[in-house]
Amino acid sequence: MAMRYRTLKDSSKESVGVYRSHIHGRGLFCNRDIEAGEMVIEYAGELIRSTLTDKRERYYDSRGIGCYMFKIDENFVVDATMRGNAARFINHSCEPNCYSKVVDILGHKHIIIFALRRIVQGEELTYDYKFPFEDVKIPCSCGSKKCRKYLN
Protein backbone atom coordinates (compact mmCIF):
# COMPACT_ATOMS: atom_id res chain seq x y z
CA MET A 1 0.00 0.00 0.00
CA ALA A 2 2.83 2.43 0.81
CA MET A 3 4.30 2.02 -2.69
CA ARG A 4 0.91 2.61 -4.35
CA TYR A 5 0.49 5.70 -2.14
CA ARG A 6 3.85 7.14 -3.26
CA THR A 7 2.87 6.60 -6.89
CA LEU A 8 -0.48 8.29 -6.20
CA LYS A 9 1.22 11.35 -4.69
CA ASP A 10 3.32 11.74 -7.86
CA SER A 11 0.60 11.11 -10.42
CA SER A 12 -2.66 12.55 -9.04
CA LYS A 13 -1.94 16.16 -10.07
CA GLU A 14 -1.77 15.13 -13.73
CA SER A 15 -4.62 12.61 -13.47
CA VAL A 16 -7.34 15.01 -12.33
CA GLY A 17 -8.46 18.60 -12.78
CA VAL A 18 -11.05 20.98 -11.34
CA TYR A 19 -13.64 22.19 -13.86
CA ARG A 20 -17.22 23.47 -13.96
CA SER A 21 -19.70 20.79 -12.89
CA HIS A 22 -23.36 20.25 -13.79
CA ILE A 23 -23.83 18.76 -10.30
CA HIS A 24 -22.63 21.69 -8.20
CA GLY A 25 -20.31 24.61 -8.98
CA ARG A 26 -16.94 23.03 -9.57
CA GLY A 27 -16.11 19.35 -9.67
CA LEU A 28 -13.13 17.06 -10.04
CA PHE A 29 -12.71 15.42 -13.45
CA CYS A 30 -10.28 12.80 -14.71
CA ASN A 31 -7.69 13.87 -17.27
CA ARG A 32 -7.02 10.25 -18.27
CA ASP A 33 -8.79 6.92 -18.14
CA ILE A 34 -8.81 5.45 -14.63
CA GLU A 35 -9.21 1.72 -14.02
CA ALA A 36 -11.53 0.12 -11.44
CA GLY A 37 -9.81 -0.21 -8.05
CA GLU A 38 -7.17 2.38 -8.88
CA MET A 39 -6.19 4.96 -6.26
CA VAL A 40 -7.32 8.29 -7.70
CA ILE A 41 -6.37 10.97 -5.16
CA GLU A 42 -5.88 11.54 -1.45
CA TYR A 43 -8.36 13.81 0.32
CA ALA A 44 -5.75 16.05 1.93
CA GLY A 45 -6.00 18.93 4.36
CA GLU A 46 -5.42 19.90 7.97
CA LEU A 47 -5.92 17.10 10.50
CA ILE A 48 -8.04 18.42 13.38
CA ARG A 49 -9.80 16.94 16.40
CA SER A 50 -13.50 16.21 15.88
CA THR A 51 -14.34 18.50 18.80
CA LEU A 52 -13.24 21.53 16.70
CA THR A 53 -15.48 20.89 13.70
CA ASP A 54 -18.58 22.78 14.90
CA LYS A 55 -16.52 25.84 15.82
CA ARG A 56 -14.77 25.82 12.44
CA GLU A 57 -18.03 25.34 10.54
CA ARG A 58 -19.57 28.34 12.33
CA TYR A 59 -16.46 30.42 11.57
CA TYR A 60 -16.49 29.52 7.87
CA ASP A 61 -20.25 30.06 7.63
CA SER A 62 -20.01 33.51 9.26
CA ARG A 63 -17.52 34.55 6.57
CA GLY A 64 -19.30 32.95 3.62
CA ILE A 65 -16.54 30.37 3.14
CA GLY A 66 -17.49 26.95 1.78
CA CYS A 67 -16.59 24.22 4.27
CA TYR A 68 -14.76 21.06 3.17
CA MET A 69 -14.38 18.49 5.97
CA PHE A 70 -14.07 14.72 5.90
CA LYS A 71 -14.40 12.55 9.01
CA ILE A 72 -11.61 10.01 9.49
CA ASP A 73 -12.97 8.47 12.69
CA GLU A 74 -14.67 9.55 15.94
CA ASN A 75 -11.62 11.57 16.98
CA PHE A 76 -10.24 13.18 13.82
CA VAL A 77 -11.41 15.10 10.76
CA VAL A 78 -9.52 16.37 7.72
CA ASP A 79 -10.34 20.04 7.16
CA ALA A 80 -9.57 20.82 3.51
CA THR A 81 -11.20 24.26 3.55
CA MET A 82 -8.01 26.33 3.70
CA ARG A 83 -5.24 23.77 3.21
CA GLY A 84 -6.83 21.15 1.01
CA ASN A 85 -6.11 19.79 -2.43
CA ALA A 86 -8.31 19.23 -5.48
CA ALA A 87 -10.05 16.24 -3.85
CA ARG A 88 -12.27 18.66 -1.92
CA PHE A 89 -14.08 19.37 -5.20
CA ILE A 90 -15.34 15.80 -5.64
CA ASN A 91 -19.11 16.11 -5.72
CA HIS A 92 -21.66 13.73 -4.25
CA SER A 93 -23.60 11.26 -6.36
CA CYS A 94 -26.17 8.68 -5.34
CA GLU A 95 -24.65 6.54 -8.13
CA PRO A 96 -20.92 7.29 -7.68
CA ASN A 97 -17.93 6.17 -9.72
CA CYS A 98 -15.54 6.38 -6.73
CA TYR A 99 -15.48 5.49 -3.06
CA SER A 100 -13.47 6.74 -0.10
CA LYS A 101 -11.50 4.61 2.28
CA VAL A 102 -9.41 5.46 5.33
CA VAL A 103 -6.12 3.60 5.00
CA ASP A 104 -3.16 3.30 7.34
CA ILE A 105 0.13 4.08 5.65
CA LEU A 106 3.23 3.83 7.78
CA GLY A 107 1.23 4.48 10.96
CA HIS A 108 -0.73 7.48 9.65
CA LYS A 109 -4.37 7.51 8.53
CA HIS A 110 -5.09 8.85 5.04
CA ILE A 111 -8.36 9.27 3.16
CA ILE A 112 -7.90 7.79 -0.31
CA ILE A 113 -10.40 8.01 -3.15
CA PHE A 114 -10.57 4.82 -5.26
CA ALA A 115 -12.31 4.17 -8.59
CA LEU A 116 -15.38 1.91 -8.23
CA ARG A 117 -15.35 1.16 -11.95
CA ARG A 118 -13.48 2.20 -15.08
CA ILE A 119 -13.76 5.98 -15.48
CA VAL A 120 -13.12 7.54 -18.88
CA GLN A 121 -11.16 10.71 -19.51
CA GLY A 122 -13.34 13.80 -19.04
CA GLU A 123 -15.82 12.12 -16.68
CA GLU A 124 -16.60 13.82 -13.38
CA LEU A 125 -15.41 11.95 -10.28
CA THR A 126 -18.08 11.43 -7.62
CA TYR A 127 -18.60 9.50 -4.40
CA ASP A 128 -21.47 9.04 -1.97
CA TYR A 129 -21.00 11.47 0.93
CA LYS A 130 -23.11 9.20 3.18
CA PHE A 131 -24.10 12.06 5.48
CA PRO A 132 -25.85 10.96 8.69
CA PHE A 133 -29.65 11.28 8.83
CA GLU A 134 -30.80 14.61 10.28
CA ASP A 135 -34.09 16.48 10.62
CA VAL A 136 -32.97 19.23 8.25
CA LYS A 137 -32.61 17.61 4.83
CA ILE A 138 -29.91 18.65 2.34
CA PRO A 139 -31.26 18.42 -1.23
CA CYS A 140 -29.27 16.33 -3.71
CA SER A 141 -28.63 17.60 -7.23
CA CYS A 142 -26.61 14.68 -8.59
CA GLY A 143 -29.12 13.96 -11.36
CA SER A 144 -28.51 10.21 -11.27
CA LYS A 145 -31.29 7.74 -12.10
CA LYS A 146 -30.84 6.34 -8.57
CA CYS A 147 -30.94 9.75 -6.84
CA ARG A 148 -32.24 9.58 -3.26
CA LYS A 149 -33.20 13.31 -3.47
CA TYR A 150 -31.28 14.14 -0.27
CA LEU A 151 -27.67 13.84 0.89
CA ASN A 152 -28.78 12.82 4.39
TrEMBL record:
Q: Which superkingdom?
A: Eukaryota
- One function term, GO molecular function aspect: DNA binding
Q: Where is the SET domain?
A: 14-130
A cellular component term from Gene Ontology for this protein is:
histone methyltransferase complex
Q: Name its GO BP terms in alphabetical order.
A: methylation; positive regulation of DNA-templated transcription
Going by the UniProt record, its keywords in alphabetical order are: Activator, Bromodomain, DNA-binding, Methyltransferase, S-adenosyl-L-methionine, Transcription, Transcription regulation, Transferase
Domain Post-SET, residue spans: 136-152
Question: Which CDD domains does this entry report, sorted A to Z?
Answer: SET_KMT2A_2B (cd19170)
**PANTHER family, per database record:** HISTONE-LYSINE N-METHYLTRANSFERASE TRITHORAX (PTHR45838:SF4), HISTONE-LYSINE-N-METHYLTRANSFERASE 2 KMT2 FAMILY MEMBER (PTHR45838)
- Mind telling me what this protein is named? Histone-lysine N-methyltransferase
Source organism (scientific name): Anopheles epiroticus
